[in-house]
Amino acid sequence: MRYPLIILFLVLQFATVSFGQYSIRDPKAIPLNGEWVFAMDPNDVGETGKWYREEAPLNRWNKVTVPHCFSVDPRYQFYTGTAWYRRTFPWQPTTGKRVLLHFDAAYYETVVWLNGQKVGTHEGGYTPFHFDVTDLLKAGANTIAVSVDNNTWKVGTIPGSKDNNEPNDPFPGWVNYGGLIRPVYLTVEPAVYVENVKIEAMPDLAKGTATLKIKTRIRNTTGQTNAPKLTFRVEQAGKVIPLNWKQQAGPAANQTVVLEAETALKTADVKLWSIDQPTLYDVQVIAGTDTVRTHFGIRKVEVRNAQLLLNGQPIKVAGGNRVVDYPALGSLEPDWLIEKDLRLMKEAGMELHRLTHYTPSETVYDWADRNGMLIITEAGNWQITPRLMDNDTIRTKFRQQFREMAERDWNHPSVIAYSVGNEYLSEQPAGQRWTKDMIAYARELDPTRLYTFASMRLNILPKKPEDEASQYCDFISTNTYGNHANILKHIHSLYPDKPIFISEYGTRADGNTGEAGQVTHLEKFLSDVRPLPYVIGASWWSFNDYLSRHDGTNPDGTRPWGLVRHDRSKRPLYTTHRTGMAPLTIEKISWKPGPEGTHALTIRLTARPDFPAYALKQYRLKTGTTTQLIPDLQPGQTTDFTLPVTGFDKTMTVEVMKPTGFSILTQTIDLTNDTRTSNR
């Protein structure tokens, strides 16, 4: 069958290969990262002046390293406008092959030239795109030139300026970090090659089996009918799983088609993916001479009776909004920063995230897949006004960016839902039309995910459920910054069958009560939320401090909302969040001194019955160099441990470890006769 035109482009997910500090998912990649030359173009004369010509003088261009964010380079700091990148690379032509030029992201409007010829354009700052450059390459040195315009402070871009003429309100809530912010590379493909693969792995929880569907998008660039037979190789932990496939025939001449194949996995071959057992499968799709690789997880996510179910079990977990911003890097995301941030989040009890208002590097999702996180990923409608939401051009741009995001991320088991925007006027007709239409469009692309958007209007509105766009969502996402108990009860009265995810809450560290106020705010929040069974998650705004030019930003350019500061140093809030969002508690039960310095400490571990709450399996208790397995616990269940203590120490530190090896709770217990303990 022909594949819908709305999803004809985008690079396939592949196994990850590291080039320098940045991973590229395609092992066939020929990286163009590294040294380029760079020039600002504030008067937009580069194209008319033909800066893309091979013979154009470069004596006033500066050397930079790509990926590159020019907004944090001291020479071009906070420049807004067009900038140019150039480099040469050697090439030896290949016969019967296609060569694709890939950009994992460039912010925001990009124009590409190769050897003096325009290759193409792209709009959107956080999603990947590629061009076929086969016919423009030549033997020897090739010159690539790229112009990138980061001006999203105008009406018509996504994100972009509003059209409401309010003072100090033209900017999105984060800096418009410009440049070639993610890897650039080439791939060499056969004349008939795989453009994309979509994996749909659905378990039958009652039988313990699973159905696996693979949709392979194949591009035939020849003038001849070519029907390569598809073969598949699925592995789990290095073991090949024998499977029998039902599949379609191949493509005709000069066509892009999607071929579907389906198989069944037996009970013995099914291992479910979850936040504590993030089991992944590797798959190879072989189409003629082309082989592509990706991974997937088998898991079922659904909402029912105001609950979020993962593999049939209710789950309630905390999360955080991570803004892609780091000192001297801006929106660059080297592998070490992703590892640093997500590890800090995981160990702070952040498991279910609406990360931010745009899609981060795909390495984020790879990490979440391997280590167990649930992610709601969001495309760029950030407070778009009603007039703009009804504008056909804006709608087309949003659909393009959403499609690029979804096609890149749809094989990641960590991605459980998509959001179609943040904080727009969802009670107005334009907001309702946008929500209904964009969710319908998105479901055509990927019917396997849940859908939502982050509303700020439910705090005061509506009086009837049909008066606000959350009626079209699978679950409610609300940005609520106070009066939590009353507002959440009101939302539940409107939508009693829909679970509620608090997509933003929090308070700044520079308020009247300072950093201590963040701690008390979280403690009050937990006391309000824990009695409410329909709250499935709460994502603190924000995990990290970030730079902004939005109204309310400090004179130093920061917005200090974070558990961690801009440099990722921890605030007191980090420890409070870690303890409060751990899925279990530790209580001292008794302390019995014994003869000759041998004593016995009894502690009680309780799986939280309210929030966060989910089944705990294969957790471990660590004391010093000793680790013990904690019996499996359902929410509300307890277990006691009697721990031997020798010597004359007055305290003992115990630590809870997840099956994935992350430390999520550390508690120091007083070994005197009282029962005081301290958490850290």
TrEMBL record:
Q: Which residues form the Glycosyl hydrolases family 2 sugar binding domain?
A: 32-186
Keyword list (alphabetical) reads: Glycosidase, Hydrolase
Q: Name one GO biological process term.
A: carbohydrate metabolic process
Q: Which residues are in coiled coils?
A: none
User: SUPFAM superfamilies per the record?
Assistant: (Trans)glycosidases (SSF51445), beta-Galactosidase/glucuronidase domain (SSF49303), Galactose-binding domain-like (SSF49785)
Picking any one GO molecular function of the record gives: hydrolase activity, hydrolyzing O-glycosyl compounds
The Glycoside hydrolase family 2 catalytic domain sits at: 301-520
Q: Which InterPro entries match?
A: Beta-gal/glucu_dom_sf, Galactose-bd-like_sf, GH, GH2_Domain-Containing, Glyco_hydro_2, Glyco_hydro_2_cat, Glyco_hydro_2_N, Ig-like_fold
Q: Which residues form the Glycoside hydrolase family 2 immunoglobulin-like beta-sandwich domain?
A: 192-299
Lineage top rank: taxon:
Bacteria
UniProt record similarity statement: Belongs to the glycosyl hydrolase 2 family.
Q: Which PANTHER family match?
A: BETA-GALACTOSIDASE, BETA-MANNOSIDASE
Its name, as the record gives it, is Beta-galactosidase
Q: What is the lineage of its organism?
A: Bacteria, Pseudomonadati, Bacteroidota, Cytophagia, Cytophagales
